[in-house]
């Protein structure tokens, strides 16, 4: 009886039905934990990017994103071990790598970012391969195919794109050496190139998102008649990024310091295209004795004289949002997406200038600078509107005939009233960008600039 009673008990134990069973029943829902963990990581990244204690700077925002994603991977590692019979301990590796990188970026900023530009691509590529192998062996869930693998593929593309961006930028820096010089204007250096001889000196101000190479037709033509300077605003072209917001006053102040420290004597003829015209107007309002004449090339419309010169609190909030968005775009550019932007057509500019534009337009600094510029557009327009009277100094207003509307036409007509020595000419067959990028449009622009130079030299009225 004792043997008979023991045998069924042993059988029950062997089948995992008794209290001493060594075969655990499946527990937890690994699929839900994968989805919940990775979703939590994405939500955490978005919340950290929007958090007011995270500065709206590329290093801080990138670090916040990485820390958010690290939280998701850490949750997957911990929760899968604690609540399921499919522990995913490998997820601790991306959690540690992303978390460590993110914290380092937020603490130390640009120096770490420059190191990660080279370290990130090979490190992530090795990590992706390891993650794929381990998850393939240890994860038995449909979520592996429709969620985890796409995330791993995205990391793979980020590593390849980051390598492509880093190596491509290094190669193009050698192919397109900087002309001119870098001059410290207080915390960052700006690129300045001056050619030709004669007085007055012409200073060319490129449009929004543009750089000195956009003036490839105009600068050499003007240099045959007088001295001409082109430069790159902060973060653009060969210039270094600036920490301060780039509104019209900041840009005009930087230009003033640049010309002084570059030993370029005034007074100047300032020629600005599009957004660049706003900065020219602001410069003339702040440093009237340094400006002998102006050329406004299809200027962005400045604010009316009745507008307040100070940005409202709402504008400041919008600027913060755009600043964070610009940091995210800049981060995306580090992964190679900026090189798609850099392939845009640049009109009929000379080949050398087109090559410089493609190389520099692809950089994260350029995209960040461009978005920063547009983030402060309202302030720049209000600041440009502070110039109410250019007295009798020569002023040439060129307006593109294609693409304008009644509001733009009215604003251009108002600009022509700033001086009693003005010519306003509408180029019927030219678009906004044709005035600098098209050879024929650039020739018209050059004529306008030289007309102002001639008026100053003759001390006579401006002739068309």
How would you summarize this macromolecular structure in one to three sentences?
Helices cover 56% and strands 10% of the residues. It is of the alpha/beta class. The protein has 2 domains: 28-175; 181-318 and 360-458, Rossmann fold, CATH 3.40.50.1820.
Please render the helix and strand layout as text.
Layout: H1 2-14, H2 30-50, H3 58-83, H4 92-108, H5 110-138, H6 143-175, E1 181-184, E2 189-195, E3 201-205, H7 218-223, E4 228-231, H8 248-261, E5 268-273, H9 275-286, E6 291-297, H10 313-333, H11 338-341, H12 351-361, H13 364-375, H14 377-384, E7 395-400, H15 406-415, E8 422-427, H16 434-437, H17 439-458
Parallel strand pairs: 3-4, 3-5, 5-6, 6-7, 7-8
Antiparallel strand pairs: 1-2, 2-4
Structure description:
By secondary structure, the chain is an alpha/beta fold. The protein folds into two domains: 28-175; 181-318 and 360-458, 3-Layer(aba) Sandwich (Rossmann fold). 56% of the residues lie in helices and 10% in strands. It has 17 helices and eight strands. It has helices at 2-14, 30-50, 58-83, 92-108, 110-138, 143-175, 218-223, 248-261, 275-286, 313-333, 338-341, 351-361, 364-375, 377-384, 406-415, 434-437, 439-458; strands spanning 181-184, 189-195, 201-205, 228-231, 268-273, 291-297, 395-400, 422-427. The chain has an eight-stranded mixed beta sheet, sandwiched between helices. Helix 7 (218-223) links the parallel strand 3 (201-205) and strand 4 (228-231). Helix 2 packs antiparallel against helix 3 (58-83) and helix 8 crosses helix 9. The radius of gyration is 30 Å and the shape is elongated. The model is unreliable at 1-25 and 305-314 (pLDDT under 50).
